[in-house]
Amino acid sequence: MFHHPKWIDETMGFGWAGVDLFFVLSGYLISTPLFRRMAQAKPISVPDFFIKRIFRIIPLYLVLLSIYFMIPAFREKEALPPLWKFLTFTQNFGFDIKNYGTFSHVWSLCVEEHFYLLFPWVIAALIYGKAWKKGWILILLLFVLGLVVRIAGWHFLIAPHKDQSDFGIIWYRLIYYPTYNRLDGLLAGIAIGALFTFKPAIKGRLSKNGNSILILGMLVLVGAWFLCKDQKSFYATVFGFPLVSAGFGLLVMSAICPSCVLYRFNSRATTLIAKLSYALYLSHKGVIHLIQPQIAKTGIDPKGTLMLLLCFITALLGAYMLNKAIETPFLRLRAIILEHRKKRQNPGNVQTIVRSKTRATEKC
Prior knowledge:
This is Acyltransferase. By secondary structure, this protein is mostly helical.
């Protein structure tokens, strides 16, 4: 099991909120292309959407899942949840992190998959019902519903166990992991995508104040840090998730404003990490679990900063190999399939742009 450096343990107690940034980014990146097609009065293909998501997510996921089940040495903890929970993406419901903590981080992928499954159908229904211009009402209702569900969950499911020794485990199982409690980040990302697509005048004004939005987002996150010092308290449970999502939403909004310093920041290193992010997300625990004991044999402090750096580099190399061996070929295949579907739908279009599209699709 990976040992964090001491300074990480002392200063990064808010690190759990990183998954909320992941949700905000996902909500924005997935919804924006669909919103742009809607704004241009172009049809939205639900099958194409699922083809894109399946070829992006499933192949590498199945490879890592196979490794976890076939190679026990790769497991960072003793026991795996049942295989059917992984295959049905239901691991985040009733999740027993204490006894089945191996490959536990894919609970957030379960939330993502539920989002991918439902979101295009919601958009299609709004278009069919000619109600998409009032979609902001649905976003607001879902946000309020999230608050109501967490309030009810706290009073009826959590509070009765407040004095029990396993209270923390119960809180994580019933509050932290379930999809219906984690919609805030996705809704924040969707709201940003809709605002910047359908409200060009507001987008223009916001784009001129990117740095101010960045500062505001940081201040909101500082406030969220104070609110969530006791992560399992009532106020953190009910209001912590939306406040964290609002802070990260403002950071994402600032990053897409040309006036913001984040927008102008372009680094090959960060671009590479972004490209490898999915493979890194899936494989890092297993790779670190394998490599850290070997590095420790050289005398390097298991809790030192150098160990952290070496483990990160090793995990990055593992993600790079997985990207080249698994992700890239399937993304190329995806581009070919989508281009073939496009030609079938538009027989007069004989452009062959698969190769150029492949590079662009690798980022999605």
